[in-house]
């Protein structure tokens, strides 16, 4: 029945991405969001600390995604990161509780929050930060479970995932 969990997470991802995509902030934005749009479009560096990984991944997405303006693509990169965060959260909660519904509800609660929704619909470092935080949480909980089962290989995999996300 593992496929059922992935079905829930895929639904969370697709629904969140669709909702964020249709509510993207229009055009060029003011303040940090506008700066991030410019940084991604020009392969630049943002204000300190520079957000190197965000600039690199967002720049790749912005330059290779085939639709919309560069500003829209930068906003869409945040929408994708936000939707992926919710899918990872849904998976983590499902693994902890055994309930796909619990995962979907937790993802919906976070994803519908005003602050999360706003940052997921405009160029922002925060959705990618949330994604890596969710990935670290999933890895830490997987490590705990593997330790309980004395599964050395799974523990190693969880530590590697945690380190990459960190």
Topology readout:
Elements: H1 2-22, H2 31-42, H3 52-64, H4 70-97, H5 100-111, H6 114-120, H7 126-148, H8 152-165
Helix pairs in contact: 1-4, 1-5, 2-3, 2-4, 3-4, 4-5, 4-6, 4-7, 7-8
Detailed description of the structure:
By secondary structure, this protein is an all-alpha fold. The chain has helices spanning 2-22, 31-42, 52-64, 70-97, 100-111, 114-120, 126-148, 152-165. It contains eight helices and no strands. Helix 2 packs across helix 3 (52-64).
Key terms:
mainly alpha; 166 residues
Rg, rounded, reads 17 Å
The largest sheet, given as strand count, sense and whether it forms a barrel, is:
none
The residue ranges in which pLDDT falls below 50 over 5 or more consecutive positions are none
Q: Structural class, from helix and strand content?
A: mainly alpha
Q: Name the overall outline.
A: globular
- Strand residues, percent: under 5%
Q: Output the number of helix runs.
A: 8
Helix content: over 70%
In a nutshell, what does this entry contain?
By secondary structure, the chain is mainly α. It is built from eight helices and no strands.
């Amino acid at each position: 029945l593992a496929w059922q969990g992935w079905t829930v997470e895929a639904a969370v991802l697709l629904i969140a991405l669709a909702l964020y995509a249709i509510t993207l902030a229009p055009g060029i934005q003011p303040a940090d969001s506008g700066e991030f749009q410019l940084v991604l479009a020009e392969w630049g560096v943002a204000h300190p600390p520079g957000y190197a990984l965000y600039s690199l991944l967002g720049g790749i997405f912005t330059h290779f995604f085939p639709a919309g303006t560069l500003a829209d693509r930068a906003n869409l990169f945040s929408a994708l990161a936000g939707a992926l965060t919710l899918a990872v959260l849904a998976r983590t909660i499902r693994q902890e509780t055994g309930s796909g519904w619990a995962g979907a509800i937790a993802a919906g609660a976070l994803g519908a929050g005003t602050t999360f929704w706003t940052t997921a619909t405009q160029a922002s470092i925060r959705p990618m930060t949330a994604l890596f935080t969710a990935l670290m949480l999933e890895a830490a909980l997987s490590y705990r479970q593997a330790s309980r089962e004395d599964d050395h290989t799974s523990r190693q995999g969880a530590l590697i995932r945690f380190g990459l996300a960190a």
